[in-house]
Design goal:
Largest sheet: none
Oligomer: single chain
Mean pLDDT: 88
Order of helices and strands: HHHHHHHHHHHHHHHH
CATH architecture: Orthogonal Bundle
CATH topology: ABC transporter involved in vitamin B12 uptake, BtuC
Shape: globular
CATH class: Mainly Alpha
């Protein structure tokens, strides 16, 4: 298989689009203190719903809206059960991901292997002719452009706006936020819905763009778990989480090349390899944040700089529903 760096990086950027959307959506949700563990099932169900609606209407926009609505609806179940009923977020999310997965396969069976509408490339005039950068960043479809823009917007919103400050304060210390006349429950519900909206949009992107169509397997299985890991990988920072998404996409694309270079090795090995590699990276990050390692790196400036890139702590109230006294 011919190896072309331009094609490689263009494929990485395109393939990472739904992963970026889902990882950043979950980052926003967890910044507010809510864990939505239903991502894997949500992505599958929203992918099925998006394809079914787009197929029946022969229009893409209703398909994307349907996928986003499914994602927000599932997130609302997690939020309501946690925030207002005091149920365990992890347990509710885990049950939902299994339920949504089975629903997606059952309800989507009539649409399996059908040819439906899909997003087409939309090269940006002038920019798409730039050497290397043009094909890599400016020759994709509108969802890829949106995902790139979403990285910057989410960082700006979380860390540079008053609304982002309220979001972070609720995730860190909801009682203190309440003392400042902020309603933690309303904030958590709002950002759980927004996070779910973008996870649903990620599912729609899978079936209408990245891996067009619907079937079993669809090709998005396991992505939700990876997105949950990427939030940790990014230290609950949207930019770092996006970097992790592109890293995972790079591993997936390289797996395709490796299949061509090493035909004697079963293809399943290269298809599965990105998942344990990502877990291995998380283990390294955990070790890099241990106090003994940080003390050892104090006098080694370049190592200290590298470790700083992996720093990041979970919101103090993550997974702990706010209950007013």
């Amino acid at each position: 298989m011919d190896f072309d760096l331009t094609i490689l990086f263009a494929s990485v950027v395109a393939g990472a689009t739904p992963i970026v959307l889902a990882a950043l959506g979950e980052t926003i949700t967890e910044k507010a203190g809510i864990i939505n563990l239903s991502l894997d099932g949500t992505i599958l169900l929203s992918a099925m719903a998006a394809f079914a609606v787009a197929y029946n209407t022969d229009t893409l926009i209703p398909g994307f809206l349907a996928g986003a609505a499914v994602g927000a609806s599932i997130a609302s179940v997690v939020a309501v059960f946690s925030i207002y009923l005091g149920q365990n977020q992890v347990a509710v999310g885990f049950v939902l991901t299994l339920t949504c997965r089975d629903l997606a396969y059952f309800l989507g069976n009539p649409y399996s292997r059908l040819q439906g509408p899909q997003v087409t490339p939309l090269p940006l005039p002038v920019l798409d002719r730039l050497p290397f950068l043009g094909p890599v960043f400016f020759s994709h479809n509108f969802m890829t452009y949106f995902s790139l823009l979403f990285i910057a917007l989410s960082w700006w919103y979380i860390f540079r706006t008053p609304q982002g400050l309220n979001l972070r304060s609720v995730g860190e210390h909801p009682r203190a936020a309440y003392a400042r006349s902020i309603d933690p429950k309303r904030i958590q519900l709002l950002y759980a819905l927004w996070g779910g909206f973008f996870v649903g949009l990620a599912g729609a992107t899978f079936s209408l763009s990245t891996k067009p169509g619907w079937g079993r397997p669809q090709g998005a299985e396991g992505t939700g778990w990876i997105c949950l890991a990427l939030v940790i990988f990014g230290g609950w920072n949207p930019v770092k989480a996006a970097v992790g998404a592109y890293l995972f996409s790079f591993l997936q694309v390289m797996g395709i090349y490796f299949q061509g270079w090493f035909p004697s090795v079963p293809a399943q090995v290269f298809q599965v390899a990105p998942f344990p590699l990502m877990i291995f990276t998380l283990v390294l990050m955990h070790l890099a944040q241990k106090e003994s390692v940080l003390n050892w790196a104090q006098e080694k400036s370049w190592i200290k700089s590298v470790l700083a890139m992996f720093s990041g702590a979970a919101p103090a109230s993550l997974g702990k529903p706010y209950q007013p006294e």
